[in-house]
Amino acid sequence: MPRVALIAHDDEKPVIIDLAREYESLLSTFDLVATGTTGERIAEETGLSVERKESGPIGGDTQIGAEVVEERLDGIVFLRDPLTAQPHEPDITALLRICDVHDVPMATTRTSAEFLLDGLAAETGESARGQM
User: Fold this and answer.
1) Annotated binding-site residue? 84
2) Which of 19, 55, 57, 132 has the fewest CB atoms within 10 Å, i.e. is most exposed?
3) Can 81 be counted among the known catalytic residues?
4) Which CATH number is associated with domain 3-124?
5) Given 11, 31, 61, 81, the catalytic residue
6) For the MGS-like domain, which residue ranges apply (predicted)?
């Protein structure tokens, strides 16, 4: 079963929730992990089971990075706000570097997240989107 991490800056949380709703059928077959607030919102608004790490500002992104190092993740969706990210939000730089070192794909936009999820669906033989 693929394991995917979900992270979103504050302004991107509605986008990641919409993505989770659209891909709910597929994501229900995945092992999901997320930073604290993002995971809480996704679980509450979709009913998906999400393992929650700490919130990003207090190390949740670092915990997810450790999972990359331990080869426990198949991909990361990190929807970031490239223009107005706040100082308390997780920084993508270290996480992106560790993903590059360990060849783990990271999607940073809605479109790239769809490609990542569609690719994992193809590998597992699952249907990607609930509406299809």
Assistant:
1) no
2) 132
3) no
4) 3.40.50.1380
5) 61
6) 1-132
